[in-house]
Amino acid sequence: MGFTNEQLERYSRHIILKEIGVKGQKKLLESKVLIIGAGGLGAPAALYLAAAGVGTIGIADADAVDLSNLQRQVIHTTNDIGKKKVDSAAETMRAINPDVNVKTYYDFVDSTNIMDMIADYDFIMDGTDNFPAKFLINDACVMAKKPLSHAGIIRFKGQLTTILPGEGPCYRCIFKNPPPKDAVPTCKQAGVIGAMGGVIGSLQAMEAVKYITGVGELLSGYLLTYDALKMEFHKIKLPPRGKGCAVCSDHPTITKLIDYEQAACEWHPGDK
Amino acid sequence: MKITVAGEKKEVKEGLTVAELIAIEDVETPEYVTVSLNEEFVEQEGFSATTLKEGDEVEFLYFMGGGR
Known about the structure:
- By secondary structure, chain A is of the alpha/beta class.
- Helix content of chain A is about 35%, strand content about 15%.
- Chains A and B meet through strand 5, strand 6 and strand 8 of A and loops of B.
């Protein structure tokens, strides 16, 4: 694949980086990333991945844009209120970069659809707001051997890790099971500072770009935490993969996907 | 004795257990925290029985469910 003059100019700040170059940019244009959740984390990640020229970006969400989303979900605008989030996100991504082929999935992930959804992608990004989805995405990515960027945010804190199935520890290595419903506060109950999605979602996009281009060291085997009030990042080294993990050990006890009970950030009557 | 908690050096009493440290540190939702001691996870049931030693490195890992 050759670059057009317009592409050489559009990606010039990437191409000039010795770690990326023409080769790395080509990898980005040929890559496929799926973002699950078009919200606080998904919005900035989608913007940066589209701008970076990730060739195919899938975006999954079954919500519509709500006024209360706009404090942090920077891919949507006031004019988008009421639109499907995936359509609003797709419009913005296409407007940023016509090179990107955007695929929309107007659906919440569950055990029946996630394996098909992730099958075609090189890298998966969890931008969901609830533990059932986070565990489901982890388990599905472990089973399908798909690299995953996991993240969570609340109040003034955020954290992320990169999961390379078969190599490093997974989400379930750290947290065995979802907490009971309402045991741990959600964003809707506890709040979240808008820019937190920007910080952590951008770091997820950074991990996707590094994975695709093969540059640097990934957050596999580490949980990176960020405390905005103390303005501190802290990198926690995780034990090696699989030691007794129910899903990613060599002898897993979880071999089928589980739909846990929903306890979402923004639950509306009528949501599934 | 000196231990390191979440990257910070702390002076604590000899024989302190993980459960006692959780109380001192005022850990949020302690029943759902994951504890790593010298890069190994400690089982929840073992918090009271696990005694810390000089130089130990402890990390608390918390559930964070938000994102959308």
